[in-house]
Amino acid sequence: MGSAIGGSGAPAAHAGHDMGPAEQFYAMGTPIRGTSTAGASGGLVLEDKGWGTHAALMLAGVKGPLECELLAVSTTGERRVMTGWSVPPSGYGVPGSPTPLYMHGGSPFPRAGIDRFEVVTTAGKTLLTFDI
Fold first, then answer.
1. Does residue 35 sit in helix, strand or coil?
2. 3-state secondary structure of 111
3. CA neighbours within 13 Å on the CB side: how many for 121?
4. Tens digit of pLDDT for each residue in 48-66?
């Protein structure tokens, strides 16, 4: 079994809701902060696994409707979709809809074989980049 890169201990309590598995994993790690020119913000927690890399994403500052994907980009430029979701018109982590989105997914690339992660829309716009 792999271990989360950075952080340890029990997930922090969040008032008013139970954390799902992606949010729990995210809360236990030390997030890598993403960079954005699109107004989005977020963090990514990584875990080495025997099958590749597990990642938990926190995304805020986005309004929909959008369809998005978290991509792993290898050191050779190969791209793999780790997970996908839709953003409702009200958005995530914005005024009127302050709760961020938590998602998680996996990549067959080992952690050492990944150059960066990207959050992109299915229309091709990059919302966040995580350089590692």
1. strand
2. helix
3. 14
4. 999 999 999 999 999 999 9
